[in-house]
Amino acid sequence: MSTVLTLLAVYFLYLVVPPLVKWAFIDADWTGTSRQDCTGGGACWVFITVRFNQFIYGFYPAGQQWRVNLAVILLAVMLVTLYFKRVSLKFQVVTVIALTYSLIVYILLVGGVLGLVPVDTSLWGGLMLTLIIAGTGIAVSLPIGILLALGRRSEMPVVRALCVAFIEIWRGVPLITVLFMGSVMLPLFLPEGMNFNKLLRALIGIVLFQSAYMAEVVRGGLQGIPRGQYEAADALGLGYWKSMRLIVLPQALKLVIPGIVNTFIALLKDTSLVLIIGLLDLLAIVQAAFTDPDWLGYAVEGYVFAGFVFWLFCFSISQYSRYLERRLSVGR
Amino acid sequence: MEDRIGKKVVIDMRGINKWFGSLHVLNDINLLVRAGERIVICGPSGSGKSTLIRCINRLEEHQQGRIIVDGTELSDDLKNIEQVRREVGMVFQQFNLFPHLTVLENCVLAPLWVRKLSRKDAEETAMQYLERVHISEQAKKYPAQLSGGQQQRVAIARSLCMHPKIMLFDEPTSALDPEMIKEVLDVMIELAEDGMTMLCVTHEMGFARKVADRIMFMDGGRIIEESNPRDFFENPRSERTKMFLSRILSSEKLC
Question: pTM for the whole thing?
Fold first, then answer.
């Protein structure tokens, strides 16, 4: 039986892989400036290379793109330092670093101060926008999710009821609905003349939505901590917040790293939903590019490229989480 | 507060009643403990002995009566509860060490965050107590790398680092393999000899005979019998005590 299955699998691979390789590499065209350069009959990667800048930066002004690059370089330097210095991932350290970095990136990208030309968020797009939405969503929904999870297990009935209501409401609505509500309905309720940034509205919607999911993941971890741990912390006189921060959460979060990462990956991919409210994330900008009359008919290349980029990021995140699990598994 | 003998009273429990649902787990408990006293509480399982000592640091809430520990009355007031917990150490049956922290970090945690000691002072104190329980060479290890007996000794050191006035032991040797029981009891005996006020829930009758000033026998949520070790073992008054003793002592002889 297993021999048959193996043979079938091999045959299937034989059917699929060679033509794919032929299309994507052997017959593909890589260099050029227009569709006339695509003569090989395979994939026309010229489409991607010509539009590459737009796919990455959206409509961020060409002369200002160094600001985006600088933000990425800062992140890379930070991660590499953290990796090699083996700084203990303490609560305060992580919080301070994250807050400082967010502030720097905000100033860099939005501009308007320190002699930086203001760049309107409607010009943001492409991979850059995808990463900003995902990054903000991840960074803000985790702490909110932790608080919600703690609230849901609180002994105070009002706090508990509020947290349960929040979580169940947001988990019960599709993200698309949330985004529509934010972009179409919300302005109707706001007083005349008061209107705020479309990106900010999308961000708030995504953060609230993801916090609810994160809360449930974290709650799973909290339930995995034996009662004895709470009792030992109590008996030492640690008090609620200290025992949560020093004893319960470090263990609970470690327990649910796979769940948290899973939520992050889902969030990263869900960001492409913002295209329905007119934000040009990576997928949206690729779609816009292949409806350009100059490049009609290259949708497949566009989707393959967008899919590959998403995969690259999601795969990296999952690899990082495996590393983190190994690193934190000391003493077990 | 002092009693007639002139020794300071550190635990004063009066008219304590507690129910788990319809189960009456503590039935009119009165208990006075003086500074330096060593009390052993024994009794069949389900007799309320663990619940009794867990009321002293409010891991369990009593429903009727008053508990005053070192001058502080236990009530819903969180401040009072934390005040009492600072002065009362507890050792659990399952050790309950923090698995994500090293032995040393387990010991410095509360002094750092509750007593607000400097890290240097906290570590010094911790090493001192780890030495006292004969385990200082394991300070950098994680709890899971230690045997049960070693873990329980670390748990004792962790409690002592807070310089508690009272130590509660909740069946500290019940989860241990027989060959490790002695190392933990030895540490407890040393502690008793140094004058620590101790309340121990235990079935180790040898330990009780050796260190206890008073032995209490509980059954059905009541303190049935309370006397010094000699009377307790040689002239138990109640039938239930006699039965309990005959069972537990015969099984000890078998070992």
Answer: 0.85
